[in-house]
Input
Amino acid sequence: MKKIRFYSQANWLLAVATSLSGCGNSTANEAVEPPMQASMPPSSTTAAEVPNTLPAPSASLTTPAAPIPALPPSKCTPPALVCEDFEEGAIHTNVWTMRAPNGLLEVVQDRVAHGKYAMHTNTNQNSNSQAELVETAFLGGNFFGRMNVYFPIKPRNAHASLFSGIGNDQGNYTGMSISVGRNLFIGYGRDNPFFDTGSNAQVTVPVGRWFCIEWNLRPVEGSNNHLWIDGVEVASFLFGDKFSNGSLGPTGDGTFRIPPFTEARVGWSHTSHNDPDPFTDVWFDDIALGPERIGCVPP
Output
């Protein structure tokens, strides 16, 4: 089966996918890939044990050396303002910049949530390896997102993120993320004054099936952040209490207020792996960003 691959190395490759008869949608009933260690005990990791995973702002984004088709803007269903379903067999490079240092980002047909195409990311075993789509077309202080994600196995000790909102406070880095340790949580970080923590709420990562994840991040308000899995709210992060590390946050009142995002990143990004057999593969589909809750794509 042919794949369209986008590499972070100097020589980016673009192969045109060949239509094959019988290609259909993958379903949630796909066989679950075997775990890394069948004897691994259940995890009870908390956000305090898993450092925040926000990557530092990039000095420059990876630019492909070879030409890539500039597809017309993807047609988004309101209230989504930026979206990507990969159904043209490529990424809309007039909206997204592909950032893949030490990683691989490709459009594939072998595992999809809807339609014929999805995005597969693979990162190597080194720290600071990313495979992300970056956009600046929609930003703001009340940020909603939606996407379908497939984890073949449960992450173990990964310090990573699925989404990052990067900001700038008088030249200092700030950010929020949908982070992944062994579970999902919201991560927070800033350089000056330094603050790095995660939300108390921990959400189990669905494994071996596509699931819809939605989020609402409010960097300016500093509270009232939300996370949904398959349309059901699994956690509400109000931060009237302390953060997972016991502090009251940089504002001293249980909130984390930062300027609006200056760029948004969607994909797989990890800063480190404390694991001899690291987790490296994730699939994405039906990405959408906007100023209101967008909702999941019907099955």
